[in-house]
Structures are given as C-alpha cells and as structure tokens.
Amino acid sequence: MSSTESIVVRGVSKRFTMRYHRTLKQMTVALVKGQxxxxxxxxxxxxxxxxxxxESIGLMGLNGSGKSTLLKLINGVMRPDEGEVLTRGRIAGxxxxxxxxxxxxxxxxxxxxxxxxxxxxxxxxxxxxxxIIEFADIGKFLDTPVGAYSSGMFSRLGFAVAVxxxxxxxxxxxxxxxxxxxxxxxxxxxxxxxxxxxxxLFYVSHAAGSVKRMxxxxxxxxxxxxxxxxxxxxxxxxxxxxxxxxxxxxxxxQDDDENDSELGAEI
Amino acid sequence: xxxxxxxxxxxxxxxPDAPLAPPGANGGLLDVFRRRYLLRLLVRxxxxxxxxxxxxxxxxxxxxxAVRFAMYFxxxxxxxxxxxxxxxxxxxxxxxxxxxxxxxESFNAGTRSIIKNKAxxxxxxxxxxxxxxxxxxxxxxxxxxxxxILTVACVAVGWTPDLVGVMAGLLGFVICAVxxxxxxxxxSAANVFFRDFGNVVNxxxxxxxxxxxxxxxxxxxxxxxxxxxxxxxxxxxxEVVLLVQRCFWVGTTDDPTETIEHHIPDHLFLIxxxxxxxxxxVLVVAQLVFTRLENKFAERL
Lengths: 267, 301
Prior knowledge:
The complex is a heterodimer of chains A (267) and B (301). With 267 residues, chain A is of the alpha/beta class. Chain A has helices at 24-33, 67-75, 107-117, 122-136, 151-163, 181-196, 208-214, 232-239, 245-250, 253-266, and strands at 5-19, 38-52, 56-61, 82-87, 91-93, 169-173, 200-204, 217-222, 225-230. In chain A, the strands form 2 sheets. Chain A has a 6-stranded mixed β-sheet with strand order 5-6-7-3-8-9, with helices on both faces. Chain A is globular. Chain B has one domain (28-47, 56-296). Strand 9 (225-230) of chain A pairs parallel with strand 1 of chain B.
C-alpha cells in the first residue's frame, strides 16, 4: 500500500533564544555584572506524531504550551531545531488569529497577494474573488487599507482567503476567538465541508465543544511535550476541560459556541 | 504520555499526488523565479506604495533624477570647473549617477525589505528571497526615467551610439543588478538580527558616490594614482560607471576614439566580466548565508 500520511512530525524540538541585552552598552554592563547575556526556552520538546490524509486533529493545551509554534512548523514559517516535519500537498490556513496581511494595502490587494502566497494563480483568484468577499463580508471596506480594519474584519478576511484555497491541509488557529457568532457558525460549517472533502484539518482551540464537533482525534501539548494523543473525549477529559462538558454537548449549536468562548477566556 | 490509536480510513482519492516533504519553500532564488506571478504582485505593490497618496505620482521619479542632475551639473561642473576639463561633463556624470543610484537603491531598499514585510514573513510560508529581489526590480523600474532623461540629453548634444558601447552598457547594468541583489540578500538577512546593518549600508552608500569616476574623470585617477589606478578598478561600481560612460558619454564627444584612448582604461570588458563573475560568486555565498539565517526569521521579527 502506498503511503497516505499527510503530516509527519518526528522528534521535533524548537528552542527560542531570548535576548536580554541587545545594544552594545547593555551587553557590556551585563558582562561586567556577570549576568547571562541570553536565555533559551524550549518551546517544543521531542514531539512526534503522524497524521493520515483526511484526519481532523484538535490541538489543545494551555497558553504557552507550544501550540502556535507547532502550527508554524507545520505551515513552514519556522523550521525545527531538531527532528523533522514533513507534509504532503498544499497547506493553507491561519496562524495566531490573523493572516499575513499588509497593513498599508487594501483588502482587495491583500486578497490577491495572500492568495498568490498560498499558491493560487491570478485566474484562480479572479474566479474565487466574489466568493471570498461574500464570505468575508467586509462590504464597502474592500478598498480600505486593512490596517484600519477591526480585528473581526481582519480575521474574517484572512479566513475567507485561506478557506477558498484548494489545500490538502488546512490549519486553523483560534480564529473563532475573535469572530462574532454568525461568523463562527459560518466557519464551523466551512470546516465541516473541508473535513468531508477528505482534506486534513488541524484545528487549534480551547473550545472543547467545537473540538468535539469537528475533530476525531486530539493532541494535547503540555509545556512543549506531547501529553496525549488519542480520541477526542479522552483528550478533553485529560485536559480537565470537561467540567461542564456534558452540558456543552447536549446544548444546541448557538449556546455551544457561547460556552466555548467563555471557557476559552477563563483558561 | 498517553497514546491511544484512533482508527481512520483514508480515501485514496483524497491523497494528493505529491511527496512528503518539508513544508515551505526550499528552493531559494530558483523558487522566486518559479513564482513570477507572486513576484510581480510584490513589485507592483511596492511601486504603488511609494506613490500612494501623492498628487504627482510617478512624475516624482522624473523630478528626483532631474534635480540631482542639475545640482551636480551646476555645482561640480560650473563652480568646480569640471566643464572645462571634461568634454560634455553633464553626460559623463549623469550616466554614472543613474546606474550608481540603481545600485544603492537596490542595496538600501533590499536591506530593509525583510523587516518592512515582517507581517508576511512571520505568518506566511513563502520564499523570503522574494523581498530583496522585488526591491531590486523596483529599483530597476526606476532606472527608466533616468535613462529617458539621459538619452534625451545625449541626443540633444549629438550622440552616435555604437554596438560595443551598448554591450558595455548592458554589462554595466547586469553587474549592478547581480551585485545589488547579492548584497541585498546578505544584508536583509543580517538586518533581521541586528538593525545596525541598515545603518551600515546607508553609510557604505555614501562612499559610492565619491569612489566612482563620475564627478571626476578616470583620466584624473590615472594621472594622480599612476600604478594604483589598477586597484581603483577593483571597485565594481567604478567599473560599472566606466562601462556606462563607454555606452553613453563616449558617443557624445567630438572624437570618440580619442576619448576612449584617453579616458577609458584598457581591457574594459575583461575587467567587467571579471566583476560579473565575482558578483555571481557573492550571489551564491549570499544565498547560502540567507538560507541558514532564514530559519530564524519568524522568531526574530
């Protein structure tokens, strides 16, 4: 049988250097006083897992546990210090709530630029342009520089472009944290479609409810180490996010989302 | 660590026809030229950005070189009296200015390009070489107004272009472009780690104006430096200026053969191709360094 892996992460570590003193003067003073010039911080520590094509993964963990770093490694923005990350096919998605937009460019220009970075051609973008602006729902602000957008509009536009790219792997990082309720619902519906299409979904969220709904496997990061890799229910229990979990799952979709965001905000 | 297998059946039709590979771009400069559409968008963005909100728009790119020309023409030519020493001094000088400006712009803007585009670099996987290359192309685009003014000036004073001259001009342009890209690549990466490099480049470019034979003729260097004049030509920009003077200026003088004899060094093309080869080596080195440093861009910006 030919291989069907979509994402392979093998023994990946990522260490960040924190510079305390950046100017020559500060560095000299620090040296004289015998302080450390820099400190390192292990954001990811020997993480390994394999994702098959079409799986939808919920990546969970407390703030600072390394979720966004892992997403950046999978997306290719960062490279691991040790180990390797391998992916198959085109990757689209959002990192840390917003896309890479140029604040001085208008929404329209950013759509074309962003789509081109994601690998779409001009014709492809033209074809999908109307769908994108309809999804983003930014109305007359289309020709306004995105620097002036509200945070909701900004992430709506980013999500809209990413979701319209023909990707094989779709990464979502807490977009739902900034969107309003109608937009959240639209996003979840769209992610559901992506999942049905057999594209790999990699979803970072604090919201137990939407992870339950959207994912069939959960990874939990704890201080940069993989603590849990398995079914969703057990994963959420492992994280102790299920204190009111039964209420969440039994409620309807709207309240479900409501609870999620509260839960996310608390923790 | 708890690991519980989750059964999953893969629909073979959904598996993309692509190998497992490290994500992101890994082809360096080759990727830049493979993705020309993206490059074009970035160049267009930069050009539009420079003139956005300005009433005269692109007209400014004619005003600036024209004013620069006038300044040097009157101050150096008139007050310092170079008009008497160098035939058609205006063209002699302006040919140099246009190309030196192309180089310093590529170098300066290229060095700042990664920092300026950090919003994209931090979040999108793409060949980061795009940014310095786009800066170089934007600077190349701005050579056009200068060339138009230069050509008009040449024709006005009576110009007989020749094929060898045109070849020299092209060679000069290519050296500028390759070296400008190489240095922009190198310094843009370094600038991410220490913003000092932006200032270093600014300081370096000041030297360029005076280290090339445009506000004074090469014959003067030969006269004063004698044997050291050969070392003077180790400066790639000095060679570029001589190449473009061979292209534009020589044809405007009364006796081109006499001008070449007197004001243009021997082996002009040999030295030129030597500089081109050296620039290509610098480009390869710059690419290697860039690839190494690039791994840390996202966390350092």
